[in-house]
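Example record used in the benchmark description.
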Amino acid sequence: MIHTELCDMLNIKHPIIQAGMGPFSTKLLAIAASNAGILGLISHSGGPLMGLEKPVPQIMSEAIDEVAKKTKTPFGVNVRVAKEQPDARKCIAMICEKVQGDSDLAKKLRVVVTSAGDPIGGTKKGGLWAEQLHRAGILHFHVAAATRHALRVQKAGCDAVIASGYEAGGHIALNPVHTWVLLQGAVKAVKIPVIAAGGMADGRSLAAALAMGAVGIQMGTRMIATSDSDFKANYKESFTTAEENATVVLPGFFSPHCRYLANEWTEGLEEKMAQNTPDTELMKYKAEGRYLAAEIGDKRGSILCGQVTGLIKDVPTVKELVDRTIQEAEEILKNLPKYVKS
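Model output (structure tokens):
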């Protein structure tokens, strides 16, 4: 059995976090992940971006209620705190209010993972994000893509940093710092626990991350390709035939760098960019691509994923994925001492 500080912090069996992947829903995935002994994360809803009419805080509140009813184990929520995300404050306030008003929920909703913005954010009335969350008894993790960002996460009062490298899917950092370089830098730079993310696929990933000083890993793309996840079958299956060079980095909704699976849609986006297509038309094209992939399951849509797609060859249940990841990591770690000679 592999037991780390992350397990103690979150009261989970295995040191693995299922990544938040907004604007897509991960309610079903979070339930399956938490029931498999890892931390499941509810993603920050896309709301209008995904054709939903309800306010985003309401959508996420309902998701929290559903996940809480269907799992007896801890879970968390991802909130994007970018400047372009005006509902972040309301979402964090909603989470704190729900937890403070429900003792049963407080035992399950253990952490909020903020991302895509400054961890030193908050409100004049409530204080920093970390202060608001800590008052509610909730841990605060933040995703960082550079060592200097990890230092800022620590300064913000966060409980842990998730070091996410350039290999990751979806919106990624402007500078191409890859996971294994970033992880070493973050572990050396900060005193708070570090979780590795970006390119995490199996037991080898977990063993390597632990060997480098991480307390666990976060898996995103690999979790999409599970039979329990909320994503359409074609979306998942598109990963099983891809190679590690099958992704491309192009502009996304919130940043100029977003990693997609290369296909007809990405070729179309590149053509439109080369033709200096107006931003309004580009946004419409991106929205259409997201709808095709997420709502219809059309492989010709915009499929966000990491380079780890090249290592995905099947679509297991979350429990099967977790169990074999832990088993692989245990076998590797047991064999490592033989390389040390006295």
